[in-house]
Amino acid sequence: MAAITTAPGYHEEVDPNASYLENKKGLLSWLFTLDHKRIGVMYLLSVIIAFTLGGLFALLMRAELLTRGRTLMDADTYNKMFSLHGVIMVFLFLIPAIPASLGNILLPIQLGAKDVAFPRLNLLSYYIYVFGACFGIYSMIHGGVDTGWTFYTPYSTSDPAHGGVGSSSAVIPMTLAVLVLGFSSVLTGVNFIATIHKMRAPGLSWRRLSLFAWSLYATAIIQILATPVLAITFLLLTLERFLGIGIFDPRLGGDPVLYQHFFWFYSHPAVYIMIVPGMGIVSDLIATFSRREPFGYMAIAMSSIALALLGFLVWGHHLFVAGMSEYATMVFSALTFLVAIPSGVKVFNWIATLYKGSISLQSPMLWALSFIFLFTIGGLTGLFLGMLAVDVHLHDTYFVVAHFHYVMVGGTVMGFFGGLHYWWPKFTGRLYDEKWAVAGWFFVFVGFNVTFLVQFLLGSRGMPRRYYDYLPQYESLHQISTVGSWILGLGFLILAAMFVRSLFSGKPAPRNPWGSAAYEWLTPSPPPTFNFAKDPVFERGPYDYQVATDEELYDGFDDPLFPEKGVAEGEARA
Amino acid sequence: MSAVAHEKGESGNTRGAVRAYAAPSLFYVAVFVGLAALTALTVLQSTFDLGKLNMLLGVGIATLKALLVLGFFMHLAWDNKFYAYIVVTAIFFVGVFYTYTTNDTEKRGLRDPDQSGKILPATGAPAPGGFSP
Amino acid sequence: MSMEATAAEHDGYARPKWLAHHFYTPAQQFNTAKLGMWLFIAQEILFFGALFVAYGVYRNWYPEMFKLASHQLDKTLGAANTLVLLFSSLMAALAVSAAQKGKRMATGTYLLVTIACACVFLAIKFVEYKHKVDLGLLPGTHFEPNLPHGVPSLPANSGSFFALYFLMTGLHALHVLVGIGVLTWIWIRNLRGAFSKENYTAVFVAALYWHFVDIVWIYLFPALYLI
Amino acid sequence: MMQPQASSWQLPPAMADTAAPMDGAFHFIFWFSVVFAVLVIAVTLLFIQKYRRQKSDQRSGKAEKGAPTPSRNKLEILWTVVPTLFIIVLFHVGFSAYIHNVTAAEGATEIRVFAKKWSWEFEYGGGARSPDLHLEVNKPYKLILSSEDVIHSFFIPEFRVKRDAVPGQYSFVAFTPTAVGEAHVFCAEYCGTNHSAMLAKVFVEEPAKHEEFLASFGRKPKLCGTPPVECTEEKWGESLFTEKACFTCHGTGGDGKLGGSPSPGPKLAGIFGHDQPLQDGSTVHVDENYVRESILKPNAKIVAGYANVQMPPFAGSFTDDQLEAVIAYIKSLK
Questions:
Q1: Does residue A192 contact residue A113 with C-beta atoms inside 8 Å?
Q2: Confidence bin at A566 (pLDDT 50/70/90)
Q3: Chain D residues with CB inside 8 Å of A377's CB?
Q4: What is the DSSP secondary structure assignment for residue A246, as one 8-state letter?
Q5: Chain B closest CA to C110's CA: distance in Å?
Q6: Residues of chain B contacting residue C159, judged by C-beta atoms under 8 Å apart
């Protein structure tokens, strides 16, 4: 461990050329690592476990909705299923997924830095994440919560044990879990902004920052400015349920609509914490796989920042029918439309980047393109919900469920898996099987659309969300959706098998398998502990394909798409 | 010379040494006296009942004291502008949160007294499920 | 060859011991630490800001109740606490300027006085809390006021005011406690001679945190006590 | 009761004046989005197909690159300003329809709607409450909502109205039914175990039929029960028992179970004439007064073992003779 007094963050003896996976072995070297790449891999593992657990709950829910009445479980268990699905997916997967795992692994390399600004804070934020997850598991063991991931009061805070009218499930451990998870997210945000400001290698001006780094910067701004309000909201929630302080419970003089203001002031920017890094990955993927500098680089970067800032002004569209005064609904509806502009600018710029590019449809690119298609549908249905008259009918129906799944799964999960495929050779040093990857993508894409496209119809026909049982006219659409969820589950199984197989028997990855000009491909894969053998000085931008030499872009590897020849010697060359 | 320096105001000879302005100790004591005086002022001001003005004056004096601490004790006055921008942005977003929330809470029931009112105007009956002492 | 040597040979001068491996220059380390702390303070502004929003909303709804309930708080103790914290803020600032000049002894004493003031602040806070608990002025469901006669009775929903009072001052006291911990740790490191004219980052950053805690109280005092 | 035909493949039948503006806005933004999405997807597919990388790097021995990227600020400004104009139009369409739907017509008939954990009740001014909403066609209505425990949301898809019933405050929905037929009320805000069972029926009737309903409301009907049979006191009590959704918590069988699992509420069969142990240790002799008090103020005497089950109070839900009928029915349970 670092010497206590004199030299904070001093690293033990490390061979600069050995890869970060080989230079130290053993569990302890992982659990007490200060290397941002190892912390990122640990985050990745935990985040994928959370995604699997959340996905399992989703499959059980959809199976229950296959037929009317009781199919698998009773109402209480179903309510706990959808609440745990929501909490796990939002707080344990979507928010930490891209910034904390892929962001931790890639950001310092993309900046040419040795590590993030505060390595010990980075490790601390991982352990706070694990500590929060333990609270969540404790609550799950004790029956889980049945309040939905939104914990609306007074149902969540009015404890029947104290003579209340609300939920009798294990709410307090789960709210503490979310409270603790919030701090992990804040510390990651502080770390990333300090890293991007102060740790950039010489020659790396703001205009040479990769678009993924720009999106992490915008996300970090939201993490710092929004998460504390979540901490306060859940602190008040926990104290109100535990001690009965009357802030949100109307029985004690509080106001439940005020809770919704507090909750959504965090939770709407939180959906931008989830989607903006996904957009950052897609910008990088589109640039690499059309081998072209992104069209309107500054426009894409600035629209990430614009999304981050505008995201704070629109939370009211969750309260249109919640009893908010019409003056507020008018203002929030207008601002909600404004927030669609930066997303639109991004999509237009991505498409313009494809124009006259040299597009190669390798598996990461398939994920990026499906992000564009599905995020466009997700974004447009968001406009439906921003429109006041239409939202009155569609609020809290399956239309909303379909909308946010199109943005979360169609957006963030597609971006996350695109990034995972894209950087997998870099941080594991192994190539994966392209055919399996395309098969996995196909099942996920088809399964997702079958599951959620019909839910738009369910919603507009008036089927409310979070329903254990439904009227006969909705049955056929629910059955289509459940079958779709099986295809989706199969797709993720294929991907899991592919990645595990590639870890053990994947071909060793060359330095630059995709022929990309971005900085992370200049260092061998897997990279050494301090990312670059010698401190890098950058003379060109990450997307300057015209300036990048052929030697940098192509080093004789076997192109997975056209594997005529055998594998060229794939060992890394600096 | 190694292309290392990318900290603004980095002169070659002191090899990136840390430099922050240190005011004379008496200056800090003067700032403290100012703060103490403002505290006395705000306590005095609270004894007069000026209605709405009371709150504004209270916040005004508190902001003055905060600016003194931020500017001199926390070296913001002699430091890179960026740190001041961080503080201003944070306060701006607290302002956004407060303004939009009170835009709702203050205007409830303004268009139609039946909307989100705690008492039903027609019968005067308090809404069920509400606060009953 | 060891990491130490490559970095030194690379920069052409002996790297000081306290410079972390991933920083190029001491100035970079100092400014990064300062930026990190200012970002943490921005987060804290939102943290307390959210509570002030709740305070603002409730005060607009029940101005009379807030006025009556606030008269139960002791203004003199509040003012005394404010002066104690302002003085401790002065001590922290002097500790930093002493550390900048490399005067290790002066830094140590200033830090000690800051910690002492913080403890005095907590003591006064404890007295105030005891007084509230005795009068039964507790938040929400536990609000059973048994005020001495002659004192005007409080409206029924004053529980909300005392909920906000205990929350805001309680969270602030928690931050004071953390501040005491941090300042003691810095005091110990200063005793061991970890700081010098070139390396006073930790003292500076700890003082930043402490000044912020003082600013929160500067706003809390008029908000709760001087209605 | 014939059912009006659905107004489009996406939306439920339009049965109120609030439906038309909303449907207009919905179809406007739907077609706007379809055109926009088709445009985006088509152009992307076109570019993918047109600018596909011809040879793999490996065969060409070098990395095939895309064309250098020009910077077109004019284009950027274009596709920022044009969508802004679009959204201004969208906002206007949405907002004007919204203001029409949330404005209550002058002199609208007021109906009080009580939401409580897992059932709706409608009071037509006269004290008695009915679990169904009976409306007269082409007459403006204003439904005043309130909730006794947690947040519920009053949602009638056929009328396109939705408003949260928040405990501690009133809210209202306003509409004028335009088509005779049957609609249903959902609870759209999650409120606990039987959130999905918290349904109610809406009957939009001709004026004559509505008058007949109002006249006979609250008094013992000639026929009751399913299949409708001559109404005795117990039969009427049983139909009220199901109407007020008592069965969601109380099993009526000898074992007091509910669909195989233990019922949330205490057993009702065969309790008359025996002593009932209470939570606070005392016992009470079960008679009409105990049952009446337990219906109106459930927390007065809590049966042992059911401490934290909060049965909502039914005071005001029954007229006196309805209450007599329910007690008679419970008495008849063996």
A1: no
A2: very low
A3: 37
A4: S
A5: 12
A6: none
Among all chains, which residue has been given the structure tokens 């003056």? A327
Asked if B130's CB is within 8 angstroms of A328's CB, the reply is no
Q: Quick one: closest CA in B to C61, which residue?
A: B106
C214 lies in some domain: yes
- Residues in B lying within 8 Å of A, measured between beta carbons: 3-4, 6, 82, 89-90, 93, 96-97, 100-101, 103-105, 107-111, 115-116, 129-132
Question: Does residue C41 sit within a domain?
Answer: no
Interchain CB contact of B90 with C (< 8 Å): yes
DSSP A119: H
List CB contacts of C33: < 8 A, sequence separation 6 or more.
Answer: C201, C202, C204, C205
B/C Cβ contact: 3+ pairs below 8 Å:
yes
Predicted local distance difference test score (pLDDT) of residue D247 = 81
Instruction: Please report how the helices C201-220 and C75-100 are oriented relative to each other, as an axis angle in degrees rounded to 10.
Output: 160
CB contact under 8 A, B129 and A200: no
In a domain, D44, yes or no: no
The partner residue sitting opposite C6, judged by closest CB among A16, A240, A253, is A16
CB contact under 8 A, A166 and D64: no
Residue A416's Cβ-count burial label (10 Å; 0-12, 13-18, 19+) is buried
Q: Name the residue facing A225 among C32, C36, C46 (closest C-beta).
A: C46
Convert the pLDDT of each residue in B25-71 to its tens digit.
899 999 999 999 999 999 999 888 887 888 899 999 999 999 999 99
- pTM score of the predicted model: 0.88
Residue C102: domain span: 49-146+155-225
Contacts of D36 (CB under 8 A, 6+ apart): A376, A380
Q: Which amino acid is at A22?
A: E
- Examine residue D53 and state whether it is found in any structural domain, yes or no: no
Percent of chain D scoring above 70 in pLDDT: 93
Q: Give per-residue burial for D182-192: e unless 16+ CB within 10 Å, then b.
A: bbbbbbbbbbb
- Residues of D within 8 A of B129 (CB-CB) are 146-149, 167-168
Inter-chain residue contact A345 with D155, CB threshold 8 Å: no
pLDDT of residue B130: 82
Mutate to test the interface with C, among A179, A195, A247 (most CBs of C within 10 A): A247
Residues D172 and D264 in one domain: no
CA nearest B84 in C: which residue? C38
pLDDT of B65-114, one tens digit each?
999 999 999 999 998 899 999 999 999 999 999 999 999 999 888 888 88
In tens, the pLDDT along C137-180 reads: 888 777 888 888 777 788 888 888 998 999 999 999 999 999 99
Query: In terms of residue numbers, what domain contains D241?
Result: 223-332
Regarding chains D and C, contact by 3 or more CB pairs under 8 A is answered as no
Asked if C149 has any chain A CB less than 8 Å from its own CB, the reply is: no
Contacts of residue B21, Cβ cutoff 8 Å, sequence gap at least 6: B75, B78
Compute the distance between CA of residue A183 and CA of residue B87 in angstroms, rounded to an integer.
19
Q: Which domains can be identified in chain A, with CATH numbers?
A: 31-548 (1.20.210.10)
* Minimal-distance CA residue of chain B relative to A225: B90
Q: Please give the pLDDT value at position C8.
A: 40
- Looking at residue D57, its pLDDT comes to 67
DSSP 8-state assignment for residue C223: I
Question: Mind telling me how many Å the CA of B30 is from chain D's nearest CA?
Answer: 53
- CATH number, domain of D313, equals 1.10.760.10
- Residue by residue, pLDDT tens for chain D (334 residues) are 456 777 788 999 999 999 999 999 999 999 999 999 999 999 999 999 999 887 766 666 677 888 888 888 899 999 999 999 999 999 999 999 999 998 888 888 999 999 988 899 999 876 678 889 999 999 999 999 999 999 999 999 999 999 999 999 999 999 999 999 999 999 999 999 999 999 999 999 999 999 888 887 767 767 776 777 777 778 878 887 887 778 878 887 777 777 777 777 888 888 887 888 888 888 888 888 888 888 888 878 888 877 767 787 777 677 777 788 888 888 888 7
- Name the burial class of residue A267, with classes exposed (0-12), middle (13-18) and buried (19+) by CB atoms within 10 angstroms of its CB: buried
**More confident site: A133 or B116:** A133
Q: How many domains does chain D have?
A: 2
Which residue in A208, A317, A324 has the most chain B C-beta atoms within 10 A of its own C-beta, making it the best mutation to test that interface?
Answer: A324
Per-residue pLDDT tens over the stretch A310-352: 999 999 999 999 989 888 999 999 999 999 999 999 999 999 9
